[in-house]
Design the sequence.
């Protein structure tokens, strides 16, 4: 049997390394699709959110704000705040992918996620490979998650479109956020950030243009950063 090429082997390794994580990503994507329909988007708009935004937590926040008729600037700003960590991920990967073509860099930046970044950094620290081989691994992990997310979101849109209106599924988004947040609260700084954000969200719920979520997110980030420096 022929050995896989040097570029194909890392791609396969990336896919297989991300595969166990996809078990949890799939139901998350279904909820995102259902939530988009519940927010009042038509089927095409609901599904388009997944390939355009491709960011679970910020995508759900965006959908929630759309459902509340928030101002576009608030929606965009909220998504940017939640996704700010992607800039740090990109900066960490930049030295490895510095010599790749602009097209590869552009696509790699679009498809980055928490999960693909995590498995890639571990691999890069353990195995000495060329930048091209590393990018191939990164793409295997990233595309595995991207395809799973798109399929799951489409399934959610189909399910959501067929659910009677009296079966309100508005509770799904808060439950997903709780499932995302609680495992991430693992030290004093993250606890302070979570408590600050939650308290602020309740305190500023009456702000105009649905600015409460954006303000709460910002205050939570600031509180977490300040505490981590002490």
Sequence:
């Amino acid at each position: 049997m022929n050995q896989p090429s040097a570029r194909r082997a890392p791609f396969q390794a990336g896919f297989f390394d991300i595969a166990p994580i996809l078990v949890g990503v799939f139901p998350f994507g279904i909820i995102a699709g259902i939530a988009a329909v519940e927010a009042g988007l038509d089927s095409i708009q609901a599904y388009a959110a997944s390939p355009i935004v491709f960011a679970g937590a910020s995508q759900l926040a965006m959908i929630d704000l759309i459902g509340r008729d928030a101002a576009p600037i608030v929606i965009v700003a909220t998504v940017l705040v939640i996704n700010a960590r992607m800039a740090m991920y990109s900066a960490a990967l930049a030295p490895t992918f510095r010599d790749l073509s602009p097209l590869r860099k552009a696509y790699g930046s679009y498809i980055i996620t928490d999960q693909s970044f995590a498995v890639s950094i571990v691999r890069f620290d353990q195995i000495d490979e060329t930048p091209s081989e590393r990018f191939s691994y990164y793409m295997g992990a990233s595309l595995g998650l991207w395809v799973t997310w798109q399929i799951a979101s489409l399934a959610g849109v189909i399910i959501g479109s067929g659910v009677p209106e009296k079966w309100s599924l508005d509770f799904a988004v808060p439950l997903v956020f709780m499932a995302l947040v609680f495992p991430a609260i693992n030290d004093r700084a993250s606890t302070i950030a979570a408590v600050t954000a939650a308290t602020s969200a309740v305190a500023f719920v009456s702000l105009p243009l649905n600015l409460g979520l954006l303000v709460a997110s910002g205050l939570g980030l600031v509180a977490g950063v300040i505490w981590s420096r002490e």
Notes: The CA atoms of residues 29 and 153 lie 5 Å apart.
